[in-house]
Amino acid sequence: AQTVNSDSLQSVKLPAGLSSQILLQRPDIMEAEHALMAANANIGAARAAFFPSINLTSGISTASSDLSSLFNASSGMWNFIPKIEIPIFNAGRNQANLDIAEIRQQQSVVNYEQKIQNAFKEVADALALRQSLNDQISAQQRYLASLQITLQRARALYQHGAVSYLEVLDAERSLFATRQTLLDLNYARQVNEISLYTALGGGWQQ
């Protein structure tokens, strides 16, 4: 009979306390920062104002509370409030003293903030789906184990003439369907791993 080799389909392990600094290697954020530099912006000041410096993960493969708190629980809207502690634009006293509302009139800043929000959202969504898939896979693996016992009992009872062969067929069909569900879930998890890898800018240091 076909079996699911769960050992070969294990989820890739993420380190606990994975820093959000890893997102700075994303091509879209790098491109947005180059646009800011072209507009005479201080990148360090822009990051301090708009880029949340948090841990993305709190435990292995799970999203941190800091990451979750960046988004409104009901609407999913961005919750992070930027603060300007160092002037973002270096050219001229007037630009150096701009507040958040005025700075957001700069297209390069708008683009930078949008790219940051999108990056954190993609990571949060990928981690949430990852946890959901892992939970579903664990539940299906437990169910599969119980069905294997059910099938063994049905075969034993059939050999002793206690049940018809239909009982054996029903148990085999349930087992096959659950194995197929596990294969589908493991495929979905592999796709999710790729999405998470991409969202994190191409991987992380182990």
Automatic annotation (TrEMBL):
Membrane topology summary: Lipid-anchor
Subcellular location: Cell outer membrane
Main location: membrane
Domain of life: Bacteria
Family named by the database record: Belongs to the outer membrane factor (OMF) (TC 1.B.17) family.
Name assigned to this protein: Cation efflux system protein CusC
GO terms for MF: efflux transmembrane transporter activity
Annotated GO CC locations: cell outer membrane
Keyword Coiled coil set for record: yes
Coiled coil, from the record: 109-136
Originating organism: Escherichia coli DORA_A_5_14_21
Keywords of the record: Coiled coil
Pfam families per UniProt: OEP
